[in-house]
């Protein structure tokens, strides 16, 4: 499975390592992802999602049900 957040769609970015002599080599900035289980009381079930830590803060703020609804409307979840 790729390193993409299932709620926000965040994925790796590309940039450069820059040495003291200003030599540049390509590198990747991966998203900070965590595999986490969530309980959905409406469905009385558990789901496992790979989410970014910023998405976890959003889930803590607005709740898992609202976050899933928002992700579905943006097209990240099926």
UniProtKB/TrEMBL annotation:
Gene3D superfamilies: Ribosomal protein L28/L24
Pfam families per the UniProt record, alphabetical: Ribosomal_L28 (PF00830)
InterPro entries noted in UniProt: Bacterial_rp_bL28, Ribosomal_bL28, Ribosomal_bL28/bL31-like_sf, Ribosomal_bL28_bact-type, Ribosomal_bL28_sf
Keyword terms, alphabetized: Ribonucleoprotein, Ribosomal protein
Family affiliation: Belongs to the bacterial ribosomal protein bL28 family.
Record bears the keyword Ligase: no
Species this chain originates from: Siansivirga zeaxanthinifaciens CC-SAMT-1
Domain of life: Bacteria
Coiled coil: none
UniProt entry tagged with the keyword Secreted: no
One Gene Ontology cellular component annotation held by this UniProt entry: ribosome
Name of the protein in its database record: Large ribosomal subunit protein bL28
GO MF, one example: structural constituent of ribosome
Biological process (GO), any one: translation
């Amino acid at each position: 499975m790729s390193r993409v957040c299932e709620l926000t769609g965040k994925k790796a970015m590309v940039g450069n390592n820059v040495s003291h002599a200003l030599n540049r080599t390509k590198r990747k900035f991966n998203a900070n992802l965590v595999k986490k289980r969530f309980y959905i009381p409406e469905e009385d079930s558990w789901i496992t999602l790979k989410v970014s830590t910023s998405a976890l803060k959003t889930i803590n703020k607005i709740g898992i049900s609202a976050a899933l609804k928002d992700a579905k409307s943006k097209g990240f979840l099926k």
